[in-house]
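Sample A.
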Amino acid sequence: MNDICFPPQNTLLTAEQALSRIRQTIQPISGSETVALSLALGRTLAEDVFAAIDMPPQRNAAMDGYAFAAAGLSGNADFSLRMVGTSWAGKPFVGTPDQGECVRIFTGAVVPDGADSVVAQEQTHAGADCVRFSAPCLFHKNIRPAGSDFKAEEKLLHAPRKLNPRDIGLLAAAGVAAVKVKRRLRIGFFSTGDELAPLGSELDIGQIYDSNRYLLAALLADPSFEINDLGVVKDDPQALEAMLVSAAAHHDALLSTGGASVGEADYIKQVLEKCGQINFWKLAIKPGKPLAFGKIGGCWFFGLPGNPVAVLVTYHKFVKPGLDHLLGALPRPTLELRARSESELRKVPGRCEYQRGILKQGENGEFTVTAAGPQDSHQLKVASMANCFIVLDTDCAGVSRGDWVLVEPFSIDL
């Protein structure tokens, strides 16, 4: 099947070109639902959120101390005031202190009407009903104005924002009990290959355990995703076509691993061309060259390579940004750092490489990175040890010890 949105692909795309195509082609979903704030972490806002109240609702004290009106007092000399009561957090002082009077007050407690200053208790000496204030004493301090954080009806968060823990705290403080969010994406995933054996079974000669499905399940552990493990499909084009057509009818996106290369048992490309549309197939990256992207009916399809490290790379670089775009979430730019390489890195020009590294920061603040180990795309142990990608551009012909390189940390929440 041909489509103007899915042009023929004869040359290798760069990573940037592939990601651009994914974002230009995919149209975000429109469905939404309202969920309690306690269930909203990681969900994507479907509409802007406004404050229900001022925060703080009233003036309150920024520290433990004594509140009073500073009129007629001098901060350059000791003075004494009569204590007439206490303002507790949640139990304010009732009344207005007169001139010459003060109120004991605690952090977060409402400042009594008429008071314009709070002095820390460390600057005072309290008696039975009288408090002496020591010079020098600063007036008109340590009071948080009402609405100094935000005001009622103020826009707090813009859609389509993916809610993080700080956002949840903010909305709770604003009195927001529920939010309207994008519905969850329905995502199915499966592995392909006659060599794959389930965990718990004895391996026959030539078999390996199916690690890719477990890797994908972990990568897809997102509150915005409703995931469905579809198991393993054998290296059979009819079985693969039946799986794609059936699963596409019930999911927003499908992810497969394996079968996307050019071997005689690799059927993803030919089956996708038969039952759907293909946008691109091969990328100028390593690992992850045989990545297929297309569509089957109304379902988007990502055919990932079979090597597990290539699955890791292509998910982070293309699938996750594509799924976020499908969800309608704002794009999150990749954090990039410059680090000095403490390893000699081998590379042949022609493709951008994402090597696995261990990033550290020295006492002087300088970042250094070391190769996590051999860079073969089947080596999950090395990937597990790593905490970043070392990004070597297309023209790079290798890196010497001491050279500066670009790195992308795996998990830093900005």
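Sample B.
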Amino acid sequence: MTLRPSAFLFGSNQVEALAIYLAALRTGHAVFLYDAAANLPFAEQLIELYRPDWIAGPTVYLDQIKGAMDEVCHLTEYSLSGRTIVREHPVYHDLAVLLTTSGTTGSPKLVRLSYDNLQTNASSISQYLNLNDSERAITTLPFFYSYGLSVVNSHLNVRASLILNNHSVVTRDFWELFKQQEATSFAGVPYTYQMLKRMKFAQMDLPSMRYMTQAGGRLDPSLVADFANAAAGKGWRFYVMYGQTEATARISYIPSELIQSKMGSIGKAIPDGELDLDPETQELIYKGPNVMLGYAKSEEDLFQGDLLNGVLRTGDIASKDVDAFFYVKGRLKRFAKIFGLRVNLDELEQHLEQEIGSELSCIEEGERLVLYYTTAESAEAIRERMSSVFHIHHSGYRLELIDELPRTASGKKGLSPFAGA
């Protein structure tokens, strides 16, 4: 019986982390990718639960982990340490990568991705984005996040270049690096594009740019239109995409030339994938070779094989037009009952955000809703819409004014359970 090693890699967009990730894949090790700036007690909990054979990450981070293993080697600012683990069963032969699920930074549940998942999704993305070896992608997202990892994998798949970056897109350092290294593309989540809008991105001089992509949640149609127009004016391609970590990364996309005519859509299935709707619930169902093996909640799950057989129930409610382009309406489980009234929280958030012109997050708390908002002058408009549009009495919700919405490392709203990747 061959016992395949498992590993934890705590990293960011640095050469050392990427080299360790690729070495793990090349040598057949199953590797869990995680944020080197993450909560230390939670990282320790995961290590105790999954018992990795080796751990790698920034030396200053590994030095703080309780019960650290014997040091093996230093890689500049990174270290790698290991131990011998006695297991009764082997780690599944095709298990390649473990990632946290969207929005569950406090949960030990991981997504189990196979080598075939990584390869097929990278190939599909390379195909519909028309990537070639002359591309120079700059990392705008952490590679331990499925969207960021898909940028890395799809470009390496065509032997293209990566410009490793950890600067925020709102900094001068980022744009100086972008221009200096002649980056050809840009990837962002909705929050990224909101910031770019404020920065008057359309007026920037970026002669090396070829295309932009957006995923990680719903982007307001007005911003889609703005960036589609800006891209068209500069001869760039702009792709709106939809995906989930459970499908490695990408599930669907809108071809750049159809953005304006398919506004609000998540697009059509990626190459080698298939989308359909559950006839009873209208849940979006995806089939493809990039669907995960299943979830892991403990070390024992690393021994499991393929439990889903290429079929993923996304948890999103959707509709389809005559051209087989799909439109997500909300989450299957994001419904609340307030005074007997069934409320779609995604629809409520989207409507109120459009009304007040800023982001808002809504959660259910007991038998009431809590609406977190960031602009004090919006309170009256929110109350008016809650009454006139959603017919919810003021006793059925409360408003919480906060400075800004909490965000995950990938830029998603931290208070919202919306899980699109």
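B remarks: The first strand starts at residue 6 and ends at 11. Confidence is low (pLDDT under 50) at residues 416-421.
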